[in-house]
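pasting for ref
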Amino acid sequence: MKKYIPNTITSCNLISGCIATCFAFLGQTEMALLWIVIGAVFDFFDGMSARLLNVSSPIGKELDSLAEDITFGVAPSTILYYELTVIDYPSFLESFREYLPFLAFIMAAFSALRLAKFNLDERQSLGFIGMPTPANALFWGSLVCGYSSIIERSSYSVLILLALMLFCCWLLVCEIPMFALKFKHWGIHEKGNIVKYGFIAFSACVLAIGQIAGIAAVIVAYVIVSIILDITARKA
């Protein structure tokens, strides 16, 4: 029976993504974000259980990508879709209000492309090339939930959101290395561990102060730190 445990956990991730998507369509964005977080927890434990039980399989790998695209691709796209349906539009875009929200689902397509690349890219065993889909999903969920009052204050927010969405789509598939919070050894002086421990401590402080809104700030910091590390490594 143990060989079915990882796939069962992965399926729970997929179900969490479906529930998050339903809440997003209903405009309950905080509940949608909660179920994205629950899905992320399942996503963390499915791979761990497969390694611990030594039951990794090609089917599990494919199922994991399908589940991630629902939870970390479709669900955040739906959160953005909903926000684009309720915010004010500038007068010159008002006639496009019925159609522009659907552009949010471009992000789901790029999430799928990013996951497909990840499955084939052997460089991403200890880190990532491009922004991981869970980070992107948590960013959009927390952005809409934590900053909705600011977003809805300006009629030009629709242009900012769409531009930011396209930028995130690029980050998902770009060739920028981004560090992963994976530890081969726990010693603080091991290569890369100082950055990881420092980022964890920084994230804990930001989340304690900013709560939901702090998640978006943590993801932005994650991308910036990754870019700085990449530039430093190239110069070295």
